[in-house]
Amino acid sequence: MAVPRHVACVMDGNGRWAAQRSLPRTAGHEAAEAAVMDVIEAARSAGVTWLSLYAFSTENWRRPAGEVALLMRLVRRAIRKHAPVLHARGVRCRFLGMTDPRIPAPLVQDITDLMTLTRDNRRMTLTVAFDHGGRRDIVQAARSLIRSATPADQVTEASFAEHLPYPDTPDVDLVIRTSGEQRISNFMLWQVAYAEWVFPQVLWPDFRAAHFSECLDAYLRRQRRFGGLHRPTTMSGDGPR
Ligand code: IPE
Ligand code: IPE
Ligand code: MG
């Protein structure tokens, strides 16, 4: 099997990483940055062309205000620090979600600037799921479809998907969820329909390029069948029959 085109990571375990060191949870979030940068580079050099990272869910607003505020500050700091190198490495950056008015305006501005700076890059597309909820995306797509007045009998999976945010995003091939948790947590629900999943025990702040490679190796050992018998290469089944 070929290198996965689209890898998505649920970056979990920051709080437990900090607790193991008797540090506040926020220290775990701070330590996550090194893992993020390592994985972006590992994915890029492995030839993965789409990488999605789950950074903040619509449910994460339930966390204490101080933790939420720190997460917002850290994302802003990381963007300011790493924008030039991401751009130099040909990474197109996008943010998926981002509808809540509680996101601080200066952060929205920095995110917009990063997306504008990198929009013509093609080596890899990095999608940061931030204030993201898979169900919300599907509901927004339904609203957009209704506004388009498409006749009901013309609604297909393909035409529905055109109304999702970033409709050019290919289906996810591999999801990596760190920390041993085994659940979807409302992540890219439409796009993960036929993804392979791996659940490394390692906590996200400890996750490095070598762990990423192990996940790719596990993926390469899988046999994807998409419901058939003869290994078509995509969910739409355009491989050998
Ligand atoms: C993931 O780590 C980061 C975010 C959800 C923002 P957690 O903060 O969920 O860490 P645990 O699961 O409590 O260890
Ligand atoms: C999912 O992790 C969201 C992110 C990694 C950003 P959580 O830690 O918030 O998920 P649950 O609460 O364990 O499902
Ligand atoms: Mg968690």
UniProtKB/TrEMBL annotation:
Residues reported in the UniProt entry to bind substrate: 13-17, 25, 29, 57-59, 61, 63, 177, 183-185
Cofactor: Mg(2+)
GO molecular function, one term: transferase activity
Note describing how the cofactor binds: Binds 2 magnesium ions per subunit.
Pfam families documented for this protein: Prenyltransf
EC class of the enzyme, as a word: transferase
Enzyme active site: 12, 60
InterPro entries xref list: UPP_synth-like, UPP_synth-like_CS, UPP_synth-like_sf
PROSITE patterns for this protein: UPP_SYNTHASE (PS01066)
KW Transferase (keyword) present: yes
Domain of life (superkingdom): Bacteria
Keyword list, A-Z: Magnesium, Metal-binding, Transferase
Family membership noted in the UniProt record: Belongs to the UPP synthase family.
Subunit structure: Homodimer.
Protein name: Isoprenyl transferase
Species whose genome carries this gene: Actinomadura luzonensis
